[in-house]
Amino acid sequence: MYIPAFKVRCQVRQLLRRIAGFWHFWSPAAALALRPGLSEVELQRFEQLLAERVERGGRVSQLPEDFAEFLRWCDGYEVEAFWCAEAQPGALAFRVCRLLCSAEIVAQAAQISSGWLPVSCSREAP
């Protein structure tokens, strides 16, 4: 189903405002660890770099609008900031992870299987 980009942007922006409010209230250190968002030029360059890296295995011509809007808001977390919890499949446990910045995603893009982008890493990951 096609949802116009403007509607997606509005929904994502509303969600991101709520997330920012949560972080600022409950953990200001986590909010401070967020990297500044990408400009439109930086976002386009990121898409180009991904397309070049993934060309052999898959196609990344344009990021999904919700992910692009997230990158406009923040470019992941600083390197040592592990503030997100990710549910482990089939377990009642969480592992601590961090959202990668665009440069880290591009660096790992050569290892991407078709249609999959690394957007986080766990504390155990290098």
Task: Please tell me about this protein's structure.
With 126 residues, the protein is an alpha+beta fold. It has one domain. It contains 5 helices and 5 strands; from the N terminus they run H-H-E-H-H-E-E-E-H-E. The protein has helices at 5-26, 28-33, 40-54, 65-73, 102-108; strands at residues 34-36, 74-77, 84-87, 94-99, 120-122. The strands form 2 sheets. Strands 3-4-5 form a 3-stranded antiparallel sheet, with no helix packed on it. A two-stranded antiparallel sheet has the order 1-2. A hairpin with a 6-residue loop joins strand 3 and strand 4 (94-99). The longest helix is centred in the first third of the chain and has 22 residues, at 5-26. The radius of gyration is 15 Å and the shape is globular. It starts with a helix and ends with a strand. The mean pLDDT is 77.
